[in-house]
């Protein structure tokens, strides 16, 4: 908190300067101007609660915000017969409320659930499914073509797709729950929740140093190889140019991936590292170096053979193995108790942002499903695809570019 007791604000440029090179970090060139507040490890809990991610910007803030401790995803369906004017009214209200919530301020009709918690780096990101565009009689971009089935998929249609997808992330679970409740309450009569899921990471600045790559339930650092906003071609690979209403937006693939942890835990650590292609302790590639050392896919072991094996996950997922395909990913672990067979119902809520899922997620996943050794230890159970429109200004609302194009 500042000396005056108000939430501490930081710019997206400040986030870029303060997060790790591997994180799905902050905006490159999206918003300039105000001085950046540095974020360092070891903040007190009240300091973390006071951090604020501005809602308005060229891109929706949740795309490039730093990894958060809590992520909730909810899909909504429009009420039967809902008119475009009702959708526009809902999106205007959500925009108003999102500005307040991300600033740590109460919204009209607030239940005070998060009173005193601060914004806690809350982000609210909204996308549209192909079904919504069809309901609006709007052209469906080719990038929203259905994701094809993959070997080993066990998808539950009751927990997939939807007209509107909403991603909420923050460093406080109460803040996220409060925000979702607020959006759900104002949607009544226009849209209802189709499904929702929640996940978690360690809390940067409290339990681990801020900027630390999250560790998943398999014990691996997860997200080390993410592209960085200052990488050549980052913007054109992550953000869309067409159609016009999507310019500055992106396409989001959501997958619930259950990890077969009981089988994974039977493997010795060395074998686990070979399957991933990275050391478990440091995240360094088996070809040598530190966590952020580039992969050497041709590197050899001293006794011969590839250091990163032919079926290693990092080899199969690398852009070099997928015609340059690049995705910006976020992930949240989930643990929903035990399944009827006693195995953990646990894994990863996986989110991938890209300018075209056909050349991003789908291309990569087709290879992983067939050649990645890790695929024997995971099951994809939920799939959803959304067009995430560009961000807002103080004079516009979520989805306005789409509605204006109708």
UniProtKB/TrEMBL annotation:
A single Gene Ontology CC term: cytosol
InterPro entries: Dimeric_a/b-barrel (IPR011008), Dyp_perox_C (IPR048328), Dyp_perox_N (IPR048327), Dyp_peroxidase (IPR006314), TAT_signal (IPR006311)
Region annotation (Disordered) ranges: 206-231
Record-annotated Dyp-type peroxidase N-terminal domain positions: 60-201
Signal peptide (residue range): 1-30
Cofactor: heme b
MF GO annotations: heme binding; metal ion binding; peroxidase activity
Pfam families registered for this protein in UniProt: Dyp_perox_C (PF20628), Dyp_perox_N (PF04261)
Family listed: Belongs to the DyP-type peroxidase family.
Protein name: Dyp-type peroxidase
Organism: Microbispora oryzae
